[in-house]
Structure to design on (319 residues):
């Protein structure tokens, strides 16, 4: 009887373990896909968050794409005069905030983030894409953004490699380092030396413009030295066969291919971007070419459209 009971208990234990989640949280599951070159899951990165409905690089823009099921929030960093990292694509805050109204009595006031204190930055209201001011929304700090993203979505620091040390200090403090992907165009030796200074680093991805001499030089250095990054961000202006060739080299090397469909100038010209997919009868008329070439990471300005299409294709379901 005791033996039978032990067998039953063991069976229940095994059943329980089989149902246990494989990853501690969603961001960890996404990071696992990024690290797996054989994964068929297509990672969707959203450019500055849901900027069509909320101010770009804002907390609500992040919350919105998390609800959509996006995998990575792409953001840009600048440092204030008092050395605080904040989310801003532009060096100048005029486009995205009501700076002119707040400082109208100071006509000579600099609008550069580097010349403004955090208090001054926080006094500004963010604008939506249609130039509508939102009094309740303000420029978030990197810390605030990462707290919003923690364990829910991975983060791509686009403009920000120059702040690597400061970013890493914050990610380590918050316990999100493994959920952060930072990218740049630095030589292999520079990146390696930088990472060697720390026992724990963020994910890193080189950006290579394959139709520019500097971009091909960087790409070839990875190939010649057999350094295999998690992924390469590939940019190209004209479809002349170069992208297909490079994508095959990357996949054969055991890495992953990231493309940007946000602008035609980054993915081969007109007819190859998100807007073309949006206007097409079937988004696959645009997006399928990337999957056919082994792309498994896409940065988009049309997240709902892309995620919906990928899900129907069976390429956007975390397991």
């Amino acid at each position: 009887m005791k033996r039978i009971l032990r067998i039953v208990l063991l069976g229940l234990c095994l059943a329980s373990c089989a149902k246990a989640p494989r990853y501690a949280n969603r961001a960890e599951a996404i990071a696992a896909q990024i690290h797996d070159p054989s994964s068929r899951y297509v990672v969707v990165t959203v450019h500055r968050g849901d900027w069509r409905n909320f101010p770009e690089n804002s907390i609500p823009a992040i919350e919105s794409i998390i609800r959509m099921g996006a995998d990575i929030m792409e953001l840009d960093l600048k440092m204030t005069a008092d050395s605080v990292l904040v989310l801003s694509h532009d060096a100048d805050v005029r486009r995205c905030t009501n700076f002119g109204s707040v400082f109208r009595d100071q006509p000579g006031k600099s609008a550069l983030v580097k010349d403004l204190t955090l208090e001054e930055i926080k006094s500004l209201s963010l604008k939506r894409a249609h130039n509508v001011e939102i009094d309740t929304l303000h420029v978030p700090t990197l810390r605030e953004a990462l707290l919003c993203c923690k364990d829910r979505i991975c983060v791509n620091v686009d403009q920000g490699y120059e702040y690597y040390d400061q970013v890493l200090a914050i990610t380590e403090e918050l316990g999100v380092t493994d959920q952060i992907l930072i990218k740049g165009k630095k030589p292999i030796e520079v990146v390696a030396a930088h990472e060697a200074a720390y026992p724990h680093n963020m994910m890193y991805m080189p950006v290579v413009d394959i139709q520019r001499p500097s971009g091909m030089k960087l790409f070839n250095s990875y190939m010649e030295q057999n350094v295999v990054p998690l992924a390469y961000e590939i940019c190209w202006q004209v479809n002349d066969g170069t992208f297909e060739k490079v994508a095959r080299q990357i996949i054969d090397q055991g890495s992953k291919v990231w493309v940007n469909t946000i602008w035609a100038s980054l993915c081969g010209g007109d007819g190859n971007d998100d807007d073309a997919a949006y206007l097409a009868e079937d988004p696959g008329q645009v997006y399928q070419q990337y999957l056919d070439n082994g792309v498994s990471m896409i940065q988009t300005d049309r997240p709902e459209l892309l995620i919906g299409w990928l899900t129907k294709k069976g390429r956007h379901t975390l397991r």
